[in-house]
Amino acid sequence: MTTATLMCPRDGAALTLGREHDIEVDRCPSCEGAWYDFGELEELEATVTADADDRRGMIDYGKRPSELKCPACGEVMRAFNYRAHNLELDACEQEHGFWLDAGEAARVREVMRERVSGLRRSGAAQEAWDRAKRGGGGGIVGKMRGMFKGR
Q1: Threshold 0.85, pTM exceeds
Q2: Are the beta carbons of 66 and 77 closer than 8 angstroms?
């Protein structure tokens, strides 16, 4: 079975197989963008965190028509702000995949690192607050409670 060669939606160059962060993608040799088949964007996120809960949530904010056409079906894609950040990605409406311009895979990973860090900080803050409410916090609230317990 032969498959049609995918063409770059930016400059029309033939895409070639390559690897980005150990994921097989179709790369443009001239603009260095990459086509991630549907599901491979999640694989890219998983290179930062294996925890599926960290990757939950909406990824496409501010959806609008893209200027690019899907390399697989030729239909106009939709552009969106990835996870509400200032990072515009393009996706096929038929779920064929995502177009990432040069450097955007690294930005996706950076956003995921920030997200994981924020989720961990939030969890740690919630645990500290719960301990403080129970009187077991080592912070100022716990110390003040300890001072007034015997009185």
Answers
A1: no
A2: yes
